[in-house]
Amino acid sequence: MARIPLLLASKFIFLSILSSSGVIRCTRGENNDDHGFIQSLDRESMGLKKEKLSHFRIYWHDIVSGRNATSIRVVRPSNASVTGFGIINMIDNPLTLGPNLSSKLVGRAQGFYALSSQEEVGLLMSMNFAFTEGKYNGSTITVLGRNPVFNKVREMRVIGGSGLFRFARGYVQARTNTLNLTTGDAIVEYTCYVMHY
Ligand SMILES: *[C@@H]1O[C@H](CO)[C@@H](O)[C@H](O)[C@H]1NC(C)=O
Ligand SMILES: *[C@@H]1O[C@H](CO)[C@@H](O)[C@H](O)[C@H]1NC(C)=O
Ligand SMILES: *[C@@H]1O[C@H](CO)[C@@H](O)[C@H](O)[C@H]1NC(C)=O
Ligand SMILES: *[C@@H]1O[C@H](CO)[C@@H](O)[C@H](O)[C@H]1NC(C)=O
Ligand SMILES: *[C@@H]1O[C@H](CO)[C@@H](O)[C@H](O)[C@H]1NC(C)=O
């Protein structure tokens, strides 16, 4: 609209004086860069001034055994391969500040992981870290990515967030702290780097 020749633009204004609101909207659009139902907002008016980088380390407890399991197999392929391809677990895993489950609980990892590799034990992780601690209570970040569990470091994307983590982007690095081969329970360290306002 902005590149409409002057002559045509003045015709629009003339028409708008003459008649319908439709034409008036059209002229206004030319001036204010208003493309209908989508409007641009000033960042500062929403309190979004400077983007910050937050860093934290938390421990993710995948408890698959016992009566208080937090990670439950919801899909079991009839013919699971050695890599477990096709298995899906739904999780509500505790997130703590230390590797010990009895250390301070700061939130829960809610979502699922799916074994999505036929070549190795590789997970697709899709989960929200729902924080419950202090001012972060009620805020979340969303982690999505590929997790080949036997690699030393696995990097996954932070694709968004809510509350204090609105507009979040970043990444996490997962490192296995302990894996109990008897029970299948695992404790994984998540180092998180998150840009947000
Ligand atoms: C399960 O949780 C309940 C309630 O928190 C607790 O009393 C019980 O000891 C736990 N059981 C196991 C096996 O951890
Ligand atoms: C499962 O694997 C067995 C042995 O390899 C095979 O005989 C059977 O047909 C498979 N079943 C299905 C549903 O693929
Ligand atoms: C975890 O903490 C509990 C209680 O503080 C303690 O008894 C236990 O030894 C700790 N476990 C490890 C592995 O440090
Ligand atoms: C977090 O917020 C919820 C709902 O507002 C509240 O019930 C809960 O007690 C809070 N938790 C903590 C640890 O402050
Ligand atoms: C694995 O879990 C079992 C059952 O809770 C426990 O007896 C054993 O000590 C654990 N092994 C390790 C290496 O933590």
UniProtKB/TrEMBL annotation:
Query: Which is a Gene Ontology cellular component entry for this protein?
Result: apoplast
Q: Note the InterPro entries from the entry.
A: Allene_oxi_cyc_Dirigent, Dirigent
Its transmembrane ranges are: none
Sorted alphabetically, which keywords does the UniProt record give?
A: Apoplast, Secreted, Signal
Name where it's found.
Secreted, Extracellular space, Apoplast
What range does the record give for the signal peptide? 1-29
Listed GO biological process terms: phenylpropanoid biosynthetic process
Predominant location:
secreted
Sum up the protein's function in the record's words.
Dirigent proteins impart stereoselectivity on the phenoxy radical-coupling reaction, yielding optically active lignans from two molecules of coniferyl alcohol in the biosynthesis of lignans, flavonolignans, and alkaloids and thus plays a central role in plant secondary metabolism.
Q: How does it assemble?
A: Homodimer.
Instruction: Give the family per the record.
Output: Belongs to the plant dirigent protein family.
What PANTHER family does the record tag this protein with? NUCLEOPORIN-RELATED (PTHR21495)
Name it: Dirigent protein
The organism encoding this protein is Gossypium hirsutum
Query: What is this organism's lineage?
Result: Eukaryota, Viridiplantae, Streptophyta, Embryophyta, Tracheophyta
